[in-house]
Structures are given as structure tokens and as C-alpha cells.
């Protein structure tokens, strides 16, 4: 049977039917009054999701493009920055900063472990001359399934008094609470293909007033990603360049679905889905890559020792049409990752857990049939 694929990777994620239908309508002129109304609606929805009254700018870009915009608009060549690295995407932001001739100092943790907020405190407290211009953090490290303690790290940044906090929230926005205003986050970047429940193609950057002040002296070159242009045109519900109009239709619909569900319910659903997967993995006596207390609600990384991770992925795809992600870089072939963010929920988790149990049994991993599914059901029944 064809057309039965179930995509459970950390992005792109599943797209609701009504969002696909919204995206399928005829395009409209991006300089029309109709588009201005559409943009006004999605901007208000984005502010709701980011929990901010400030700017949330929309770019035609991936999450990496949004992060690049979040760096080049607020920093200058030679600026000293701290970058948290405990996975592939922390390392990517380090490479990005180096490409723009920033003075990068990394704060690291082993892949699969969270960053230690005290390491940031030590560096920031020692900076009596206030030479550190920014701290750059990956909130949910997609490559390992770790969520870093952004709130604690940000408290140390705020105590410093001068440095900006620049956040990669590509996998966390829409999966866990990222209260931009309450935490005083300066720059928060994300992408459409994760918790937003729409296809790839849009990047988002939330910007604080502190960051806008810093932008006045920033000297890194920019044109397409000049956020000042997006802010100016966004105030008139338009864009400086041609946007992917049909993705805006999709975004409006997905935000309406999210608002109908409610932020607390969305975050609880993601925690419940993560808990179901973690309980099943524990019942099968398979190791998780990271501690449960540091696990992201968006993705679970499993590090099997009795069977090959790639054999699990291959058989899962061949027999059940279910795609889960593999490991990246140093974890290639060593882990598989189950995405449970966006439109993926309890139904999809029960499906992948049942299928995985079958695959593990076929591959010879010792388990009791029904143990993983039973553990997941108990989590489902125990949470509201």
C-alpha cells in the first residue's frame, strides 16, 4: 500500500488537513489590501504564541536564516559572544558567528547533556568591563533531544546588564513555553516546519527594544535580512520582499488551531507525548541519550546497544511507513530520534510505539510484548 507514510522526525512535521487545504487556495497579490489583512492576523497570532507585545518578524527563510538575521542585525565584527554548544545546532551557531568574524567563546557540554547555567554565570560575572555583547543559546537541541535551561541562563545574562540573549527556539517554539516578555528575551528565532505545523519556508524573529537599541550601532553587512526593513514594512502589514503567500494562508490556519487549543493545553500535550515515548523506551530497557529531567518535549533520542539504530529506522519505514530520524555527526548510526511536536500527538505516539515494539521484537531485542504500549497508555491515562 502506498501513501501511508507517517512522518515523526523533529522537522518537517505533520501538517493538519485544514492547513493543507488553506495553503491550496489561489494566491493573492502580496501588495493587496487582502494580504495586509492576512498579515495583520498572522502577526497578532505570532505575538500570542511568543507571549510578547513586541515585534515578531516574518522572513522567507529556514530557521538557520532566522538565526543569521538574529546575529547580523545586532552585532559588529570583532564583538565578543558566548555560544552554548552541546549538539549539532549549537556548533552550527558557533560556525555562523565565526563566519561573520565575531570573537566566539564556547561553553560546552557533552552531546546528550544540558549546558550548565553556572558556566555562563562564571564567564559573565568575570566580565567586569562588559565586553561580552551577546550570549547565544540553542533552547531545544534537536540533534540530541536535550532542552537547555534557558530561563536560568538568561537570569545570568540579565545580571550582566549589557549582553543580549539570542535564542535558537526552532524546535521549542510551539512545543514548550517561551515567554519572550516575561523572561526578557532579546532575539528569538524559529522556523515554520516545527511546532507551527506548516511546511518549511518561513522563519520568525522576535526582537526586544533592547535589541533594537543595539541594532543602531551594529555594523555587520545585511540586505535581504535587514530586520529594520521588516519592522518598518511590518508596521504597515506588508513585507519588503515577495513572501510565500500561500504559506501565510497556512500559518493563519495553524495559529487559529493553536489558539483554539490554548497554550497551556499545547504544552501539556507535548509533555504527555514525550512522557509516553520515554515510558515505552524504559519498559523496553533501551537507554535514552539524555536524562529525562533534561529531555526536550519535542524529540526523544534513543541510543540502543543491543541492536543497530539504522536497522530500527529501516524496518520501521519498510514495514509500517513510519519515518523517524537518525543521528547526526558523531551520533550517526548510534541513535534514532522520535519527533513528537506540532500536530503529532497521543494517537501518533501510540502508533509509533506499537510499531517500534514489533520492530524491536523482530530484531531480537529482549522485551515483553505489550510492555511499551502498556507503559505509554498508563502515562496517557495518568495525565489530564
TrEMBL record:
Binding site for substrate: 337
The organism's place on the tree of life at top rank: Bacteria
One GO process term, biological-process aspect: glycine biosynthetic process, by transamination of glyoxylate
Cofactor(s) the protein requires to work: pyridoxal 5'-phosphate
Gene3D superfamilies, per the entry: Aspartate Aminotransferase, domain 1, Type I PLP-dependent aspartate aminotransferase-like (Major domain)
Keyword tags: Aminotransferase, Pyridoxal phosphate, Transferase
GO MF annotation, one: L-serine-pyruvate transaminase activity
Domain (Aminotransferase class V): residue spans on this chain: 10-328
Modified-residue entries (N6-(pyridoxal phosphate)lysine), positions: 194
A Pfam family reported for this protein in Swiss-Prot or TrEMBL: Aminotran_5
Family, similarity comment: Belongs to the class-V pyridoxal-phosphate-dependent aminotransferase family.
Protein's UniProt name: Small subunit of soluble hydrogenase
Species the sequence originates in: Gloeomargarita lithophora Alchichica-D10
Amino acid at each position: 500500500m502506498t501513501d501511508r507514510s507517517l512522518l515523526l522526525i523533529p522537522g518537517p512535521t505533520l501538517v493538519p488537513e485544514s492547513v493543507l487545504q488553506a495553503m491550496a487556495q489561489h494566491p493573492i497579490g502580496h501588495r493587496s489590501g487582502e494580504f495586509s489583512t492576512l498579515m495583520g492576523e498572522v502577526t497578532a497570532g505570532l505575538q500570542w504564541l511568543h507571549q510578547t507585545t513586541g515585534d515578531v518578524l516574518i522572513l522567507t527563510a529556514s530557521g538557520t536564516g532566522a538565526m543569521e538575521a538574529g546575529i547580523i542585525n545586532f552585532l559588529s565584527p570583532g564583538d565578543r559572544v558566548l555560544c552554548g554548544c552541546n549538539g549539532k545546532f549549537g556548533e552550527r551557531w558557533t560556525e555562523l558567528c565565526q563566519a561573520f568574524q565575531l570573537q566566539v567563546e564556547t561553553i560546552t557540554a557533552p552531546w546528550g547533556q544540558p549546558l550548565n547555567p553556572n558556566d555562563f554565570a562564571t564567564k559573565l560575572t568575570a566580565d567586569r568591563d562588559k565586553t561580552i555583547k551577546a550570549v547565544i543559546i540553542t533552547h531545544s537541541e534537536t540533534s540530541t533531544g536535550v532542552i537547555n535551561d534557558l530561563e536560568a541562563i538568561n537570569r545570568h545574562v540579565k545580571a550582566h546588564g549589557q549582553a543580549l540573549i539570542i535564542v535558537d527556539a526552532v524546535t521549542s517554539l510551539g512545543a514548550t513555553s517561551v515567554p519572550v516578555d516575561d523572561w526578557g528575551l532579546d532575539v528569538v528565532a524559529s522556523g515554520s516546519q516545527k511546532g507551527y505545523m506548516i511546511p518549511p519556508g518561513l522563519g520568525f524573529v522576535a526582537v526586544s527594544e533592547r535589541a533594537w537599541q543595539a541594532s543602531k550601532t551594529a555594523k555587520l553587512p545585511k540586505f535581504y535580512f535587514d530586520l529594520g526593513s521588516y519592522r518598518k514594512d511590518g508596521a504597515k502589514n506588508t513585507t519588503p520582499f515577495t513572501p510565500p503567500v500561500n504559506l501565510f494562508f497556512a500559518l493563519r490556519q495553524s495559529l487559529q488551531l493553536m489558539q483554539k487549543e490554548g497554550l497551556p493545553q499545547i504544552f501539556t500535550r507535548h509533555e504527555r507525548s514525550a512522557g509516553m515515548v520515554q515510558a515505552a523506551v524504559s519498559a523496553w530497557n533501551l537507554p535514552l541519550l539524555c536524562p529525562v529531567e533534561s529531555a526536550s518535549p519535542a524529540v526523544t533520542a534513543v541510543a540502543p546497544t543491543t541492536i543497530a539504530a539504522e536497522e530500527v529506522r529501516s524496518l520501521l519505514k519498510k514495514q509500517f511507513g513510519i519515518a523517524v530520524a537518525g543521528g547526526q555527526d558523531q551520533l550517526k548510526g548510534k541513535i534514532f530520534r522520535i519527533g513528537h511536536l506540532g500536530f503529532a500527538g497521543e494517537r501518533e505516539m501510540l502508533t509509533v510505539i506499537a510499531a517500534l515494539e514489533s520492530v524491536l521484537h523482530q530484531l531480537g531485542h529482549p522485551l515483553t510484548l505489550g510492555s511499551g504500549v502498556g507503559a505509554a497508555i498508563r502515562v496517557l491515562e495518568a495525565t489530564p
